[in-house]
């Protein structure tokens, strides 16, 4: 199903986007027979990868690797003006448990004046896997049912089921070193907690927030990605002022914001690739 993006409207107010969201909430039947490690869908290919060729007690890492057709994109945990993030439902052997997806820092993607937060071309979404001691680990089949939205100037909901079987066969076992590197690179792009010495604060005006971030040095460029929807106007430019000890950002308020939040939670991304989560208490 293909749906056009709304024109200059917010994601929660758009009938087209709400229809897509409703479709994504519909149950997806598990494929029979068991799905393969790779799956294809319109404009997206997805595969399940791992940092080891067999299960072992303790912690290891999985990756949901998306290859996205040029010109299209999928979404971060806060999608911005439209769309929705990928979702996954796991079927795991007893004694194995996954943590939520860890989200690499996204990009601002302008589509006809709407700004989305997401990923283009390719991305690995890392997932931590905990394996209890004493659990039989061979053979072990891990299944993931995925749903996503991929967009360009229109949006297409997608779904697929993929599975990984430990121990891996010879072909996949030979790819584990490159998979492990891909997962490690993705984990390096996941925002870290801000250093304890940093100070973040925000002041709420009538139409905008003024966000100050004190890092101890002059910052020439950062981008703020809000973690909460409908607080910041995603499509508005972020007015940056470099300060001797940090940076100041002017963030226009969302038209959907009813009441000022007690804090702005988000990710700040630096040109050198560093990214940190911050919480800025809001005063008035």
Written overview of the protein:
This protein folds into two domains: 188 residues, Thiol:disulfide interchange protein DsbD, N-terminal domain (Immunoglobulin-like, Sandwich); 91 residues, Immunoglobulin-like. With 284 residues, the protein is mainly beta. A hairpin with a 2-residue loop joins strand 17 and strand 18. Strands 13, 14, 15, 16, 17, 18, 19 and 20 form an eight-stranded mixed sheet that branches. The chain contains three helices and 20 strands. The N terminus is likely disordered.
Care to count the β-strands? 20
Count of domain modules: 2
* CATH H-level superfamily title of the largest domain: Thiol:disulfide interchange protein DsbD, N-terminal domain
Intertermini distance: 45 Å
Outline the low-pLDDT stretches: 1-32
N-to-C SSE series?
A: EHEEEEEEEEEEEHHEEEEEEEE
Which key terms come to mind for this protein?
5-stranded antiparallel β-sheet, 2 domains, 8-stranded mixed β-sheet, Immunoglobulin-like, 20 strands, single chain, mainly beta, globular, 47% strand, 284 residues, disordered N terminus
Helices and strands in order:
Blueprint (H helix, E strand, L loop, with lengths): L2 E2 L10 H11 L12 E4 L2 E7 L7 E11 L4 E8 L6 E5 L4 E3 L8 E5 L2 E7 L1 E10 L8 E12 L2 E13 L3 H4 L2 H13 L3 E2 L5 E6 L3 E7 L8 E4 L12 E5 L2 E7 L10 E7 L5 E9 L1
Parallel strand pairs: 13-20, 14-20
Antiparallel strand pairs: 1-12, 2-3, 3-4, 4-10, 5-9, 6-11, 7-10, 8-9, 11-12, 14-15, 15-18, 16-19, 17-18, 19-20
